[in-house]
Design goal:
Blueprint lengths: L1 H16 L1 E6 L5 H16 L3 E6 L4 H14 L3 E4 L8 H9 L4 E4 L12 E5 L1 H16 L4 E7 L5 H14 L5 E8 L4 H14 L8 E4 L2 H13 L9 E6 L2 H8 L5 E5 L4 H14 L6 E4 L1 E5 L4 H8 L5
Parallel strand pairs: 1-2, 1-3, 3-4, 4-5, 5-11, 6-7, 6-8, 8-9, 9-10
Antiparallel strand pairs: 10-12
The protein binds beta-D-galactofuranose.
Length: 312
């Protein structure tokens, strides 16, 4: 019994000895805040000592934080990479220091030899699901779409645009007339939507807004209402993340569809990391999280209640 006990102890002790550095992008959206909440919870439950660094959406701050983690000699590093390029040098330094790196929720344009695995959704598929919902909803009516892109150069912005365009290709009645970054924030999403409304006959010529995340969609909804139009009917609203507030809008008929993105990227990441550090088991280079469409028919009030206390 005592040997089992000490084995158990050593197991717990092992996780407790693990120190992980986490370079988080910032707190630009409700979804990002939830990812941080869940990651801190997951680390606590597993006895992992998590060193957290918020980069205020600046890549140079992320690179500085990663260098700091390397200097501290952490056991592993998590990075949510704000943009897809510019990571080769610092990841090569982590590799030289034999510190495994796991990417959370965004991919990078670099060799996958430079990281252990990436835990992300299929962002092209998310854009496709959003586009397919609109295709189905508008049928053969003319529909001029305005697009609020995520952070310029980020993998979700690139991929969600690609997927949406694939879905509407071949449906010439649906066109994207304007497309601009709202940097994944409510404030910018509202500002850019205001400019789209001004440019499109007070918004009367806009049939739908496709926002790469719900926070920009919530900002757009405010702009649509301030222009005296009805979001969800005069202008359809489709976005991605499935944060609680988009379900409040849906329950009011002010938003139409969202594609769910789980904030729990850290759970799968810590699972494979603990195994890799314990016995060298290599995880797949990509661990894909699920994507699910929600529309007004999916009990938005009930979904809001189920999500409202999850740290968004
Ligand atoms: C997507 C993630 C995006 C969210 C936004 O995987 O990186 O970043 O969709 C967040 O809410 O800003």
């Amino acid at each position: 019994a005592s040997s089992v006990a000490c084995l158990m102890m050593s197991g717990a002790a092992f996780a407790a000895d693990m120190t992980v550095g986490f370079s988080q992008i910032g707190s630009e959206s409700g979804w990002r805040a939830a990812e941080t909440t869940v990651t801190l919870q997951q680390a606590k439950e597993r006895g992992i000592d998590l060193k957290f660094a918020d980069a205020q959406q600046k890549q140079e701050n992320q690179i500085k934080a990663v260098r700091g983690f390397i200097a501290q000699g952490v056991d592993a590093i998590l990075i949510a990479p704000v943009v897809a390029t510019g990571w080769e040098d610092v990841l090569a330094e982590a590799k030289d220091a034999e510190i495994p790196v796991i990417l959370l929720d965004r991919q990078i344009d670099a060799s996958d030899e430079l990281y252990l695995t990436a835990v992300t959704s299929d962002q092209v598929f998310e854009g496709k699901v959003a586009g397919e919902w609109l295709v189905k909803d508008v049928g053969d009516q003319e529909c001029k779409v305005v697009e609020l892109q995520g952070t310029t150069g980020s993998s979700p912005a690139i991929n969600r645009k690609k997927g949406f365009e694939e879905a509407i290709a071949g449906h010439d009645n649906i066109t994207i007339s304007r497309s601009q970054t709202g940097d994944f924030t409510r404030t910018k999403g509202k500002e850019v939507m205001e400019s789209f409304i001004k440019a499109e006959n007070g918004g009367k010529d806009i049939c739908a807004v496709y926002a790469h995340n719900d926070d920009m969609a919530v900002g757009a909804i405010q702009a649509i209402k301030e222009a005296g139009l009805k979001p969800g009917s005069d202008i359809k609203v489709v976005s991605i993340d499935a944060v609680p507030d988009i379900f409040l809008a849906m329950a009011e008929g002010e938003a139409n569809a969202t594609v769910e993105l789980t904030p729990n990227m850290a759970g799968p990441a810590f699972d494979v990391l603990e195994k890799y550090l314990a016995d060298g088991t290599m995880p797949p280079k990509w661990i894909q999280t699920e994507s699910k469409l929600f529309t007004q028919g999916d009990d938005p009030k009930g979904v809001y209640e189920s999500k409202k206390d999850l740290g968004y």
